[in-house]
Amino acid sequence: MDGDIRDLYQEVILDHSKKPRNFGPLKNPTRKVEGYNPLCGDRYTIAVKIENDVVSDIRFEGAGCAISKASASMMTAAVKGKRVSEAREMFEKFHQMLSRDSSSKFDAGPLGKLSVFSGVCEYPARVKCATLAWHTFKSALDGENAKSISTE
Questions:
Q1: What is the pLDDT of residues 85-143, one digit of tens each?
Q2: How many domains does one find in the chain?
Q3: DSSP readout, 71-83?
Q4: The domain that contains 86 carries what CATH number?
Q5: What contacts 38, CB < 8 A, 6 or more positions away?
Q6: Domain boundaries, position 80
Q7: N or C, which terminus of the chain has less Cβ within 10 Å?
C-alpha cells in the first residue's frame, strides 16, 4: 500500500470505527444473522429489511476490532438502497479484492470508498476481520435467518 492510500485507509478506518454508521437495532428486520470470528473474537449481528428486492434498511450490532467495525459500517452505508442483485455484486467484488494475491492488480474503482480496504489483502489475518460483516450480510441475502456463521 502506498503512503497516500495508507493514510486514507487509517483515516477512514478510525472514522468509521469511532462513529459507525447504521449501528444499533433494526425494528422488524426481514432477516437477522449473526457472524463470529473466533480467531479474534469479532461478533456482529446484521439485520436487514428487504422490500421489493431492495435493501431498504440495514443495521448492525456487536463488537470487534476497528477494521471489522469500519467494514461493517461502510458496508451498511454502501448497500442500503441497492437492489439485492447489486448488493450481491458488491459482496463479490469486495471479496475478490481482499482474497486476491497482494501482488496482483485489481480495479477497486467500482467499489468507491470501500477501495480503502484494498491493502488488507497484504495481511491475511486481517482479511477475516474486514469480510466478517460481508459474509454475514451475504448469509442474510441467501435467506438464512438467525443463523450463526463463523469465518474459520
A1: 999 999 999 999 998 876 778 787 789 889 888 888 888 888 999 999 999 999 999 98
A2: 1
A3: HHHHHHHHHTT-B
A4: 3.90.1010.10
A5: 150, 151, 152
A6: 3-150
A7: C
